[in-house]
């Protein structure tokens, strides 16, 4: 019964009065005085079958005592699982895992921080906040009040890294100067994952005070890993932390422009922790792959970023007529074996390959090309294709007369042999790759020897085009740009006849680098190991991509191959059409539930408090009804048959009542943000994901709120920023939604929230802010983003606003809804007579209203008007006032027009 408590425990003292109640109920009136009366002799001889007892039966007294006890207990307010008051009075230390695994239940941790902050504020205790996610420059923990702890917790957000608990343990030394009091309470809000340094952190915390570890193993946590590339389709493994219950979900693949390319459903049986899924996509769609995520899991651990290196090239193999027919003796065999996991192949005539979608063409020991083929191949390379050539006897023979067409450097006829009868040197090893070479950074094996090669003419041009060379300086691979494409020549065969290169892993990596040039574009042919790739899109802890901030820096290809860190944030880097990706989850990332010997993990959410008073009142009521029936029966005023029927009815209804009045949970808490918005009138805007756009929207609504306070009876408080995924929109009447370029389509939950907001009386203003740039529908990135959003949003037909619309006369008489620009129409519901009392719930335009309203703290405009100057800005403010008045008052202005007619009909 440790979970049982009472809201009014002193009422339980009334239980001591039960013996007195027993005596009062047992007391009987004085016995009647006996008088002899002869006539009673006749009555005495009568025999009756039913006799009235002279005192209350003991079982009825016991039932009445039980009834009184039920009433007393109900009045005492018994509660199961009520929160227990804290016993600590010393400092409180919160250790928070703000990692990517914590993002999946971040709200639970935020509630735990707020609860701890409330306790610290109530008891006047010092509080300390220590986070475990890696940081650029970790700030030393300092004492703070409960209110400051709440503010610091609200500013926290999950990071796209795993927890660094060893680093957190090292930072605990900074707390020694503050934790002199022995009564220290430590709460470790873990993410539930095991990691390096768990035992060290737990031991360090237990030395400082009493440790409570929070880790709910029942909470679902998922991880997405990319499986090694194969020749079939992109494959991934879904992992979950808890395998007790069945689970189902979907892995969704999206393109760079936000389109959904495909999805793979998965199911997990009880006890199953992993499931492999394959995205069956055609090659063209697979090469557009950008982001793969587990649907509805908000975590960077449930997201895999696919970059240009994951794309599978379409390689055309043009076989020479004189090549060997045996596959094991053909260069095509070794090329296929090297690139099979990373590419698809076409084996056809050169003329057919040039008409295909191949991005790479391989010529294995092809000497002379027909003039027409050479001309077409030259044009194909200049358009961006990559041509890879291999030497051999045929090419060496063709070089005797003159250098064949489409070779990066002039060739010397005849070839050169090592270790043969005519040799003048021993077989050569490869030299290290130059930094400017596409092969820069690849390790050169010691067991690869070159025995024969086609030589290039020495000179400046050959030196410039040499990408790989032997230890004696002779070129092994030469390459050059041709227009937008690349031509590369291996001066050895693709078979092991002339060298050991085709049998080495280096051969695979060199070919991958060359095919990678086709994916990245022509400029990549000159990128070396020191080339920097600028940050393009950053991945946050919740698995969302956003624009990089000032702290993001450019990385080299070698840095992008290392695990993520604060200096190497996960995300996309490089060119938008072919970016490089740094993922948050590495191949060897640990994914196991946390388990520390000697430390018991407590759940974040204990059983909810449940009031037991309602069922006790129901039991008391049933006992009271039964007591009345039994009292009538005992006194002889009720037939036993009627009593039996009434009892049967009560018994049959008894099981129904406790279910309806079963232990009722206490009212769920209301979010403070929702409560503040409900108690004070506020305008709000939907977060766009772009900090600059959101800041301008907040400034614009703040300035409009000041104008409303000055001109109308509406007195708004400071505007709110809302997230339709999590925030309650029902407490707002006016929402401003600025559309940022490349804005993603909101989730299903967010779309449903927005639709309910409009359905139940809210006014949504969607602003693409592209009026001065928009020429037609979808002609700007904002317009394209709006089309994707409207395609998923359930909205009615739209029509342009005319000068008779209620929006142009709700407060001011206007001709149009002015903004910074007024080139294109503003759209509203075409027919809103069937909902919201005939008031439109949606306004769509691109006039950058927030930019027209926005002002700094001194009241100075933030952005200039495109035309019209101060007068145009005043009209924009009037348009904003009209829209807000429609949101708050509906069509009252339209109703005023009909007032005389209505009064006349009523006979007034």
Q: How many strands, what sense, and barrel or not for the largest sheet?
A: 7 strands, mixed
Using the coordinates above, name the CATH class of the largest domain: Alpha Beta
The count of DSSP E runs of length 2 or more, i.e. the number of strands, is 38
Strand order of the largest sheet: 15-14-16-17-22-21-20
Task: Please name the CATH topology of the largest domain.
Answer: Rossmann fold
Question: How much of the polypeptide forms β-strand, as a percent range?
Answer: 15-25%
Helix content: 25-40%
Helix/strand structural class: alpha/beta
The CA-CA distance between the termini, in Å, is 71 Å
Highlighted features:
Rossmann fold; 6 domains; 908 residues; 7-stranded mixed beta sheet; Immunoglobulin-like; 25 helices
Can you offer a commentary on this structure?
It is built from 25 helices and 38 strands. The protein is α/β, with parallel strands linked by helices. The protein has a seven-stranded mixed sheet with strand order 15-14-16-17-22-21-20, with helices on both faces. A seven-stranded mixed sheet has the order 33-32-34-35-38-37-36. Residues 321-326, 418-424, 519-526 and 656-666 have low confidence and may be disordered. A hairpin with a 5-residue loop joins strand 24 (535-539) and strand 25. The protein has six domains: 4-29 and 36-81 and 612-665, no CATH class; 92-217 and 594-602, Rossmann fold (3-Layer(aba) Sandwich), CATH 3.40.50.410; 222-310, Immunoglobulin-like; 317-526, Rossmann fold, CATH 3.40.50; 532-582, no CATH class; 672-896, Domain of unknown function DUF4159 (Rossmann fold). Helix 1 (18-26) packs antiparallel against helix 3 (58-75), helix 3 packs antiparallel against helix 16 and helix 16 (613-634) runs antiparallel to helix 17 (640-653). The radius of gyration is 40 Å and the shape is globular. Residues 682-888 form the DUF4159 domain. Residues 4-78 form the Aerotolerance regulator N-terminal domain. Keywords: Membrane, Transmembrane, Transmembrane helix. The chain crosses the membrane at residues 6-25, 58-80. This is LytTR family transcriptional regulator.
């Amino acid at each position: 019964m440790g979970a049982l408590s009472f809201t009014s425990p002193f009422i339980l003292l009334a239980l001591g009065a039960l013996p007195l109640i027993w005596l009062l109920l047992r007391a009987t009136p004085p016995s009647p005085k006996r008088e002899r009366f002869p006539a009673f002799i006749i009555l005495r001889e009568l025999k009756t079958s039913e006799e009235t007892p002279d005192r209350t039966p003991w079982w009825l007294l016991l039932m009445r005592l039980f009834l009184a006890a039920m009433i007393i207990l109900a009045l005492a307010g018994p509660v199961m699982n009520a929160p227990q008051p804290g016993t600590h009075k010393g400092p409180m230390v919160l250790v928070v895992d703000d990692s990517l695994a914590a993002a999946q239940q971040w709200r639970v941790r935020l509630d735990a921080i707020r609860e701890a902050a409330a306790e610290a504020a109530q008891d006047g205790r010092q509080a300390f906040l220590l986070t475990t996610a890696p940081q650029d420059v970790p700030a030393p923990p300092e004492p703070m009040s409960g209110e400051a702890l709440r503010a610091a917790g609200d500013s926290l957000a999950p990071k796209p890294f795993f927890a660094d608990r060893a680093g957190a343990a090292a930072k605990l030394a900074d707390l020694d100067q503050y934790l002199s009091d022995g009564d220290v309470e430590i709460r470790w809000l873990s993410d539930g994952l095991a990691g390096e340094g768990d035992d060290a952190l737990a031991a360090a915390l237990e030395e400082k005070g009493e440790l409570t570890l929070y880790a709910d193993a029942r909470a679902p946590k998922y991880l997405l890993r990319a499986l090694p590339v194969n020749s079939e389709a992109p494959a991934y493994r879904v992992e979950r932390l808890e395998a007790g219950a069945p689970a189902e979900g979907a892995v969704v693949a999206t393109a760079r422009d936000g389109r959904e390319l495909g999805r793979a459903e998965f199911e997990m049986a009880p006890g199953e922790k992993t499931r492999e899924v394959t995205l069956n996509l055609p090659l063209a769609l697979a090469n557009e792959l950008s982001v793969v995520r587990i649907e509805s899991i908000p975590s960077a651990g449930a997201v895999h970023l696919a970059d240009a290196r994951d794309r599978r090239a379409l390689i055309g193999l043009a076989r020479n007529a004189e090549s060997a027919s045996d596959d094991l003796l053909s260069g095509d065999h070794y090329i296929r074996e090297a690139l099979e996991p990373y590419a698809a192949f076409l084996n056809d005539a050169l003329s057919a390959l040039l008409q295909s979608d191949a991005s790479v063409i391989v010529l294995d020991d092809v000497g002379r090309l027909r003039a027409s083929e050479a001309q077409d191949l030259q044009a194909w390379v200049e358009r961006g294709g990559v041509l890879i050539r291999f030497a051999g006897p045929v090419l060496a023979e063709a070089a005797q007369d003159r250098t064949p067409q489409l070779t990066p450097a002039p060739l010397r006829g005849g070839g050169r042999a090592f270790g043969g009868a005519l040799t003048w040197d021993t077989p050569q090893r490869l030299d290290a790759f130059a930094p400017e070479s596409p092969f820069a950074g690849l390790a050169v094996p010691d067991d690869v020897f070159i025995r024969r090669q086609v030589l290039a003419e020495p000179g400046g041009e050959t030196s410039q085009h040499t990408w790989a060379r032997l230890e004696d300086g002779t070129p092994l691979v030469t390459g050059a740009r041709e227009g937008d494409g690349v031509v590369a020549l291996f001066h050895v065969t693709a078979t092991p006849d002339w060298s050991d290169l085709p049998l080495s892993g280096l051969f695979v990596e060199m070919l991958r680098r060359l095919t990678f040039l086709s994916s990245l574009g022509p400029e990549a042919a000159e990128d070396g190991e020191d080339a920097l790739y600028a940050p393009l899109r950053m991945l946050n802890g919740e698995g969302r991509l956003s624009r990089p901030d000032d702290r993001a820096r450019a990385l080299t290809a070698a840095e992008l191959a290392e695990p993520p860190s604060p200096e190497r944030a996960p995300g996309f880097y490089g060119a938008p059409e072919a970016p490089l990706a740094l993922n948050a989850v590495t191949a060897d990332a640990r994914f196991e539930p946390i388990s520390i010997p000697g430390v018991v993990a407590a759940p974040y959410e204990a059983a909810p408090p449940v009031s037991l008073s309602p069922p006790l009142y129901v039991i008391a009521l049933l006992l009271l009804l039964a007591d009345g029936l039994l009292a009538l029966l005992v006194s002889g005023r009720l037939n036993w048959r009627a009593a039996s029927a009434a009892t049967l009815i009560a018994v049959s209804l008894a099981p129904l009542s406790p279910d309806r009045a079963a232990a009722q949970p206490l009212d769920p808490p209301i979010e403070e943000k929702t409560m503040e918005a409900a108690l004070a009138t506020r305008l709000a805007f939907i977060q766009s994901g772009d900090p600059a756009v959101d800041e301008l929207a907040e400034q614009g609504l703040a300035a409009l709120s000041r104008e409303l306070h000055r001109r109308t009876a509406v007195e708004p408080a400071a505007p709110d920023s809302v997230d339709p995924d999590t925030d309650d929109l029902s407490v707002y009447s006016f929402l401003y939604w600025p559309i940022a370029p490349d804005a993603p389509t909101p989730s299903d939950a967010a779309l449903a929230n927005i639709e309910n907001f409009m359905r139940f009386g809210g006014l949504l203003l969607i602003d693409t802010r592209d009026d001065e740039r928009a020429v037609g529908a979808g002609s700007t990135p904002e317009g394209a983003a709006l089309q994707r959003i409207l395609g998923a949003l359930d909205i009615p037909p739209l029509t342009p606003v005319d000068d008779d619309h209620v929006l142009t006369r709700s407060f001011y008489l206007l001709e149009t809804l002015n903004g910074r620009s007024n080139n294109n129409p503003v759209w509203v519901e075409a027919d809103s007579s069937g909902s919201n009392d005939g008031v439109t719930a949606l306004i769509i335009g691109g006039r950058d209203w927030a930019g027209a309203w926005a002002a700094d703290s001194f009241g100075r405009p933030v952005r200039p008007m495109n035309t019209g100057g101060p007068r145009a800005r005043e009209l924009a403010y009037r348009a904003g006032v009209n829209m807000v008045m429609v949101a708050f008052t509906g069509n009252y202005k339209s109703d005023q027009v009909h007032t005389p007619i209505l009064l006349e009909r009523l006979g007034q």
